[in-house]
Amino acid sequence: MFKEFTENAVAKAKEDVVLTNGVLVLIALVSFITGLVIGILCASGAKSKKNKKLSFNADDYVRDLNFDDDEDDDDYEYSF
Asked: Is the pTM of this model over 0.85?
C-alpha cells in the first residue's frame, strides 16, 4: 500500500502543472493574509503571557516566606 502511494505521488509530481497568474496571485494573497492573522494572534498571546509575568511582586513573595518566624532550627549548626 505504501509503495503504491509513493508511486502515485511520484507520478503526479512528474506531471506539468499549469496555473494562471490570477490563481498564483490569489494563493499569494490568501497566504499573506493567513500569515498576518496568525502572527497577530500569536503576538497578542505573547503579550498576555508577558503581562502575567509582570504581575509578580518580589516583596510580597519574600514576606510570605517567613524566614524570621522559624523557631524550629535553633539546634541546626551553620557551617561556612
From this structure: no
